[in-house]
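Students often ask why we bother predicting the structure of a whole assembly rather than each chain alone. The short answer is interfaces. A chain on its own may look different once its partners are present, and contacts between molecules only exist in the joint model. In this exercise we take two input lines together and write out one structure for the complete complex. Read the inputs first and try to guess which parts will touch.
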Amino acid sequence: MWPAGKRHMQSREKEMIIIKYARKEEGVFFSHLDILRAVQRTISRANLTLNWSKGFNPTMQLFFSQPTPIGIESECEYLEIDTDTDAKEYYTKFKNHAPNWIDCLSYKYTEKKQNIAGISTACKYVVRYETPLTKTEQDAMKTFFSQRPLIINSKVKGEEKPVDITTRIYEVEIGEDLQFVAGIGNENVRVDYLCEDIKRMLKINKMYKIVKTNVYTMQKGELIDIDNY
Amino acid sequence: MKTINKSKLYEVLKKCEKPARYIGEEINTPQIKQTDLSFCLCFPDLYEVAMSNIGIRILYYAINKEKDLSCERCFSPSVQTGTLFKENQIPLFSLETKTPLNAFDVLGFSFGYELSYTTFLYMLELASIPFKSKDRSESDPIVFGGGLCMCNPEPLADFLDFAVIGDGEEVDIQVLHTIKQCKKQGYTKRDILKELKKIDGVYVPSMVDFKYNKDKIVSVTGDITKKAVVKDLDAAFFPHTMQVANIEAVHDRMAVEVLRGCTRGCRFCQAGFVYRPIRERTAKNVQSIIQDAIDSTGYNECSLSSLSTGDYSQLNELIKNTKTYCDEKHLSLALPSLRLDSFETDFVLNNRKSSLTFAPEAGSQRLRNIINKNITDKHIHDACKMVFSQGYSSIKFYFMMGLPNETQEDLQGIVDICKTVKELYKVNKTTNKPLSISVSCATFIPKPFTPFQWCKQIDYDEAITKAKWLKDSLKAINVRCSYHDPNCSMLEGVLARGDRRLCDAIVQAYKNGAVFDSWGEFFDYGKWEESFKLCNIDTKTYTKDRDTNELLPWEMIDMMVSKDYLKNELQKAKNEQTTHDCRLGCTGCGLQGKDICNQGRKK
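Now the answer. The structure tokens for the assembled complex follow.
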């Protein structure tokens, strides 16, 4: 008998193209489903071929990294496409037909599905304020992140709820900007709620923007950048 | 023109629901030219509704293709976003260049349904534009309306500088060119309106004078406005592309208008009378539009739009010719308006849909004759047998209640149809799934320029009694039934056949908080009731039956279908007589006399 999931994994062992793209400016206002539709239409417009599911209503075989909340910029979004076409040509055509707000950065060819959404453990975020953080603000932030337990107001199924994120914050670096590595997936930290809590509790009334810069996977207790995986 | 601060806007958008509604930047957005006349096309509903509107799309591309004209878009923000815009002093702006609406020279609003009137005021308020045209200065934009509701623009008479009646794609361009020339010569708004009035299809409410007594119009003075007609639809402009909506639109697919008008003459159908004569696009033209638009958008579904797509004479040729292309592109064709008597197996086989919808409109043959819906029980039974044998197990019916001369037997007819369909399923089914029937029932609303324009609309009590009886009777045979809110239908009826005395009530209702009235979750009749009371308006004045010799609020509009024809149709309805499809021989509606129709002549 096949071990659970083994058969599924085997059927997925085929050529895949991974496209890394950024979403900036207007791009931050698109939800995950909007992006999915935009990518499907880009592929159709560019006349690109890919494999379709074999069900009653065939769908494109596309796989995305974990969704980034609306309002957060990202320099590291990943898209896996199940296709047998030449990767370079595919990437060029995709890039030429994609909306302006999908900024294609690079591509990679892999022999099997990486399941980036499944293996991602954490992301690095940079919070850039309209003016650099002052010494007092930096100190206040250090105190904030050293709280145990570290509890923020998050929304769970539309309801506001306190969530303990102590174990979900991996690294924090406070300078002119705030940088931290926080969990995603099952151990997700809603960084937009975290930043709102910081703003409210520490009374830092500056405009800021959050940028997701790296995605990590956990290998033998160490965080490894998906780009180097 | 001054545009709004993007970074401030983006900061606010982060707090909005579905912010992608407000950023523009859609694929296939044309370059907006700097022109002497700035024009913004507005739609008083949310982005996802507006982006599904085929009329907006035609006008947008038609105007932007003109060398010396430009057209931007603006749609109503949601209540939550509108509040945020107000709090942050962000005036309502155009999607393309983010220019505040009050900085445009001309604003054109499209009115597809009467319940969008308060949302229109909401947009004006967010743009800091006075509601009434008499309160607007020379520097404020010229505001006009278009769309199906402009058959009777009188309820908006105080707000609109003018209204465009009929097909907009040619007349709107002529209107904008005229305004541009007039502005160049330094004309005042009043003088511009005088020039516009000379154009066929332009109705200037301030130049038409009505005198009323308690519940009637006693006199009307002014010039009659003839509707604008695109004579050759195939030669008329239709965009070979469309913008791809940023978020999922209500109809998230490519749409092409294959024909305009309808020859069936259903007596309740406003569109069937006001969009006459019937005009078709050739299959070759439609095919080229489909291929270009699908290539440029990436949609995987294409809708062949019209009032009755089954009546499109080149439908089979079109489906046959596009089949290879559709298969290659994983493209499915949707035929949204099929009549029961123009329904063929091929359409069903080509569509992998789980449910089908039919509109018999009335439960008995007698009532279907009255409304001239020329379908029989046999048509219904044949269509059901065919779809059941193709594996369908879910079916939906549209009916109306409160039709003229309706009796309890007619309502019982709806229940009987469902019972028969259930029996037919037992014999013809090819699956083990249980049959699912749902019935959607709307209250009949008499509309201008139909033979029933003089008829009474049933009141709330009667509508709710009938709806409840129907719901209970259908529940007993395990059929789901939903019905429109009778208050909502009543309001629609008042606004559809209303006059300019309603303007203040619309403003008052808006001030009471009425907005997005066509959305069930926002509709609150209490706000309207209060405003009618404050403005001393008896809604029965507008929903009661009218004498056929009475002056009507839309008296000064010539829809080209003669009043005598409508009166004759009403009489035939009373006699339970039908009128045949005018392609089988001219029925004398008046269009042939005006030399824009040749239907029925060929035969």
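Check your guess against this: Chain A touches chain B at residues 25-26, 28-31, 33-34, 37-38, 40-45, 47, 52, 56-58, 70-71, 99-101, 207 (CB under 8 Å).
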